[in-house]
């Protein structure tokens, strides 16, 4: 039995606390993530997928319950502090990179994720060969543009860069929030393939929100459905392999009734 | 005479360039306007002159000016990040409060002179320079050191985290950068440099005045923007040098304005006009884009 790397226990997350607009987004959510899990997350709009990510990453604080990393509570740790073990890629290509800084400078920032930054020279040149090799693996010309400000890259290149930045320093937990959704179908497919290869090669523990049922079925070893702030479906291993789109569709229509 | 005025303009440009460099850190890198400078500049001047009058050496007095400037930056930074007050208002609050503090520093007087007291310009290495060249030498020394320090700082891991904070705060936080601390640090360094500018200008002019801060943000912005308009696309290091060149250019513009027969009371009006015109350069470029005008001339109306 593998030990869970991250556990959410009876997590309740509210927004607009103590106002008339108070909303409970996560309602007693339980999830146990094992080391090496690649979990695809499905759910309709407003089900709480992004809230789950924001809760894990520390953008939102929990109202009750607990979040445990390898058995230790991290519920009170700040967003910045949690970046020691966690990285994420956002849906919007603009959010993941610093537009006026070059590709190499962005990558360099990511090598120090979660660390203290001192008044020591950054040593950009020493990293260039490594960055060149890493970016050429994405196969989208990023390696030719290391000294270009990221603001002038295409959306696909930016998302590929964001993904590289998130995995450059191996995270214990990787959160992918529909990171291919803003791209055209071909670019999206290429990034998804590259993503899958890197997750398997590095044996990363990853949670991926997606709206594509076929992506959710094709990738990962486990599939989770969130609805109304709870995990309502959780399959892994062989059971997931045997899952089909039809079964998922019928499951979703059952939910709506 | 004209030569003397030119040299004097270069000296003024160099001394005032410290303001441009200080403001560059907040205005261009953190990407917000910091009004604190209008209080920090006279505070640096007042603290420096008061310290020298109390028998403290000019070098220490100048360092004290940097220190009080940093305190002003700290106050604005805390109001902005921890107090969640919008940056423009946080700056105005500290700037207004600084006015009273400055009067305290100057023992209730609105003007404090150095008279025969020592100053950085009277240090042996500068004192033997010909007329007006003392401020050029002092300004040049300070600007070279300051620019090199800033270039080094921006190339460190901490400096890169600082730049990233201004460029994309959400990303910076997701990489574990404490963006609040970066903003406070930026405001402190920026205002420290502006306090230094106040100390230098006061020693050059021979006095500190409680009203000398009015409009300095426009002068600082003018050096930044004139530099950018004059030199176009540059790397970060080149941009820092361009600020100083912009500051000197700006002094020559003022010189021309005075030569045209306007008096010094009109200078603030001209400062604003010059800055406004420079900031509208992109709009003018679009408006007078000859290529487009030509294209329009030959295309049919449909």
From TrEMBL, chain A:
SMART domains: AAA. Keywords: ATP-binding, Cell membrane, Membrane, Nucleotide-binding, Transport. The keyword Heme does not apply. Pfam families: ABC_tran. It is found in: Cell membrane. Its main location: membrane. Signal peptide: none annotated. The keyword Chloroplast does not apply. This is ABC transporter ATP-binding protein. The lineage of its organism: Bacteria, Bacillati, Bacillota, Bacilli, Lactobacillales.
């Amino acid at each position: 039995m593998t030990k869970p790397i991250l556990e959410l226990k009876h997590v309740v997350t509210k927004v607009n606390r103590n106002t008339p607009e108070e909303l409970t987004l996560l309602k007693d959510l339980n999830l146990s993530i094992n080391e090496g899990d690649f979990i695809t997350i499905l759910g309709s709009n407003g089900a709480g997928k992004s809230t789950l990510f924001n809760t894990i990453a520390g953008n939102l604080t929990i109202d009750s319950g607990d979040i445990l990393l390898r058995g230790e509570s991290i519920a009170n740790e700040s967003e910045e502090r949690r970046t020691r073990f966690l990285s994420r890629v956002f849906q919007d290509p603009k959010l993941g990179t610093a537009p006026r800084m070059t590709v190499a400078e962005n990558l360099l920032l990511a090598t120090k994720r979660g660390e203290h930054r001192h008044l020591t020279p950054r040593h950009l040149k020493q990293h260039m060969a490594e960055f060149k090799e890493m970016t050429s693996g994405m196969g989208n010309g990023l390696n030719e543009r290391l000294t270009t400000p990221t603001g002038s890259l295409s959306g696909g290149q930016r998302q590929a860069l964001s993904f590289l930045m998130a995995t450059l320093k191996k995270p214990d937990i990787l959160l992918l929030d529909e990171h291919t959704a803003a791209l055209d179908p071909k670019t999206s497919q290429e990034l998804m393939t590259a993503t899958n290869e890197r997750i398997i090669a590095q044996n990363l523990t990853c949670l991926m929100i997606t709206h594509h049922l076929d992506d959710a079925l094709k990738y990962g070893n486990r599939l989770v459905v969130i609805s109304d702030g709870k995990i309502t479906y959780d399959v892994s291993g062989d059971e997931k392999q045997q899952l089909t789109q039809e079964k998922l569709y019928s499951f979703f229509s059952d939910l709506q009734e | 005479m004209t030569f003397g005025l030119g040299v004097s303009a270069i000296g003024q440009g160099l001394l005032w360039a410290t303001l441009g460099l200080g403001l560059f850190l907040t205005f261009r890198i953190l990407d917000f306007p910091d009004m604190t400078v209008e209080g920090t500049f006279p505070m640096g001047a007042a603290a420096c002159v008061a310290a020298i009058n109390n028998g403290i050496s000019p070098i220490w007095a100048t360092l004290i000016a940097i220190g009080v400037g940093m305190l002003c930056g700290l106050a604005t930074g805390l109001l902005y990040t921890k107090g969640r007050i919008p940056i423009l208002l946080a700056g105005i609050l500290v700037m207004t409060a600084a006015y009273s503090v400055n009067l305290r520093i100057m023992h209730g007087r609105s003007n404090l002179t150095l008279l025969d007291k020592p100053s950085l310009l009277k240090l042996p290495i500068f004192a033997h320079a010909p007329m007006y060249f003392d401020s050029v030498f002092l300004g040049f020394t300070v600007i070279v050191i300051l620019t090199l320090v800033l270039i080094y700082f921006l190339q460190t891991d901490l400096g890169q985290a600082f730049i990233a904070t201004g460029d994309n705060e959400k990303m910076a936080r997701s990489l574990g950068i404490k963006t609040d601390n970066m903003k406070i640090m930026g405001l402190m360094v920026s205002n420290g440099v502006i306090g230094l500018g106040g100390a230098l200008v006061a020693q050059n002019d021979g006095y500190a005045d409680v009203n000398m801060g009015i409009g300095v943000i426009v002068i600082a912005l003018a050096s930044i923007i004139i530099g950018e308009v004059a030199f176009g696309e540059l790397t970060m290091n080149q941009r820092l040098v361009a600020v100083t060149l912009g500051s000197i250019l700006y002094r020559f513009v003022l010189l021309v304005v005075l030569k045209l027969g306007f008096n010094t009371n009109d200078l603030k009006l001209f400062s604003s006009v010059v800055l406004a015109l420079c900031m509208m350069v992109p709009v003018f470029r679009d408006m007078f884009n000859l290529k487009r005008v030509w294209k329009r001339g030959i295309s049919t109306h449909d």
